[in-house]
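Bumping my old thread because nobody answered last time. Still need a sequence for this structure:
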């Protein structure tokens, strides 16, 4: 009976523990054909999920696949669209801002660290973070599209963004001059570098809503049942003992 009691309590503890799915991490690396081209990758969420996008090629680092990415790639922009193809529409946050990241945008977040930083120029402000980071919590199931481009090749859906523009098919604002180039303005004066056409980006997906609902109620029921069994067992033993003494 004691073994059954222990097993019952152990089962309650296991059922009380929330269960979470392991995050799925996918890494993409490659080269853009030109500063006026982009990398487009659709992905599907089968359930409400948390999504992260992070780049590595500007400052270098180790991507989700464990590959060491060298620094020196172009300064990237990433943006997330709902749907795929020409009809894909830019995702926006609760304030109506396009979900995108690049150091040419006013809401730049950056992925430094863990990505590295480059020194461009001299003096204060010469250390530059150019890699991007986007985090979206509780994104609904559906098809989405990641767009990665040079930070100076900006989808109109990102800038000016909705309501003026919202579709991927609206095109891009091209401020690249046809070349990959990153300029900085530290205290020592303007300085520019010519990076390569390499990119490295991770898509991380973690399904949400996987915890067992209201586990405390279930645990209390099982614990109460276990106590009743235990007390009943003690009562039976006392009756047997008293009967033997007579």
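Sorry it took so long. Here it is:
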């Amino acid at each position: 009976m004691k073994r059954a009691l222990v097993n019952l309590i152990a089962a309650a503890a296991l059922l009380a523990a929330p269960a979470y799915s392991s995050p799925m991490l996918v890494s993409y690396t490659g080269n853009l054909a030109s500063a006026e081209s982009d990398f487009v990758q659709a992905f599907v969420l089968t359930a409400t999920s948390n999504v992260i996008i992070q780049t590595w090629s500007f400052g270098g680092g180790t991507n989700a696949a464990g590959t060491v990415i060298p620094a020196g790639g172009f300064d990237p922009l990433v943006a997330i669209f709902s749907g795929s193809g020409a009809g894909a529409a830019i995702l926006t946050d609760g304030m109506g801002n396009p979900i995108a990241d690049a150091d040419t945008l006013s809401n730049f977040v950056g992925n430094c660290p863990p990505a590295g930083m480059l020194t461009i120029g001299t003096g204060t402000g010469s250390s530059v973070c150019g890699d991007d980071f986007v985090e979206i919590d509780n994104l609904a199931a559906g098809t989405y599209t990641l767009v990665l481009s040079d930070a100076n090749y900006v989808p109109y859906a990102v800038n000016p963004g909705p309501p003026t523009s919202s579709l991927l098919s609206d095109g891009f604002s091209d401020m690249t001059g046809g070349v990959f180039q990153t300029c900085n303005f530290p205290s020592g004066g303007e300085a520019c570098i010519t990076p390569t056409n390499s990119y490295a980006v991770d898509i991380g997906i973690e399904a949400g809503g996987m915890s067992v609902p209201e586990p405390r109620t279930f645990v209390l029921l099982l614990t109460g049942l276990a106590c009743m069994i235990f007390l009943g067992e003690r009562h039976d033993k006392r009756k047997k003992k008293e009967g033997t003494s007579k």
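DSSP finds two helices and 17 strands in the chain. Let me know if any region looks off to you.
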